[in-house]
Structures are given as structure tokens and as C-alpha cells.
Amino acid sequence: MAVTMHQAALPPLQRSLGQLIQILHKGQAHADSQGFDAAVLVGSRLYPDMFPLARQVQIATDIARRGVARLAGGEAPAMEDNETTLAELIQRVEHSLDYLATITPDQLEAAETREVTVPIGRGETITMQGWPFLSAFVLPNVYFHVTTAYDILRHNGVPVGKRDFLGEV
Q1: Threshold 0.85, pTM exceeds
Q2: Could you say which of 7, 12, 130, 135 would form a disulfide bridge with 114 (CB–CB 3.0 to 4.6 Å)?
Q3: Which sign, positive or negative, has the C-alpha torsion 125, 129, 132, 133?
Q4: 89 contacts: CB under 8 Å, gap ≥ 6
């Protein structure tokens, strides 16, 4: 059985972002139960030279939306990076999931060989075919930033575990 690009892209991204919502909710519940402002979590980072939780969520959602849009030959809707609360971060992830739900299998037809060009900083770009773009760039980047968001929350005492990251299997 052949796997389509839609099947390879959408379910893993939707699952990861869905689990991100769940761990962000757990972060809010933990802050509420411990009596501290959840904004502390939004600005928390694992190390001084790493991005804080808010930026990890922003990057994960941007890469998921933009990656799928590029595979479909289009552009994703822009989002401002202005979230300051866990509720706003959750809403951002929900909006990203709403966008991903609009992508049809037809839009990703033959996307595995479609050339995709992406900016990589300092005015530089890289171009690759769709399958390597998805498998070696989009999915690993989303997993990295969702994992880092999880790690920041866990480091701050939020009671999350592997099942919260993976979800129902």
C-alpha cells in the first residue's frame, strides 16, 4: 500500500499539535493549582540562549502550517507572534490545526517531487523536493519544538509524561 503525502504529513502534524494543546492545558492547570501566574511558564526557557516556551510554540505552528502550504504549492496564513498567555498559545495551535484541516489530498497530489524553496535565515534559502522537505525538515522541526515546549513545562514542574507527549496510541 502506498502512502500519500497527505497521509504522511497531516496525521503526524495534527497529532503533535493536538498533544501540544494538551500539555499547554496541563501547564495552565499546574499554575492554577500552585497559585502562580502562568505567564511565568510562557517566558520560561531551558537555557539562557534557547527560545522561551512562547517562541517554541510559535515556531512549531509556523513550520507545520507553512510546510504543508508549501507542499500544496501555496502560502499559509500569517500569524502574529504576540502571544503572552497559555490561552493565547493554545488558540494559536488551534488556528494552525484549523488551517491544516483545510488541506485536501488533491492539494498534495504529487507533492513528493514538487520543488520547495524555504528561507533558512540571513537571506539564504534551500530548495529540495517535497518528500525530503517533509521527512527531513518539516516533521523533525515540529517534533523538536513540541518536545522543547514539553521539556520547558516539565522542567518547571508541570506533571506531564511520555503519554502526554505521545497521546493515545
Answers
A1: yes
A2: 130
A3: positive
A4: 24, 42, 53, 54, 57, 83
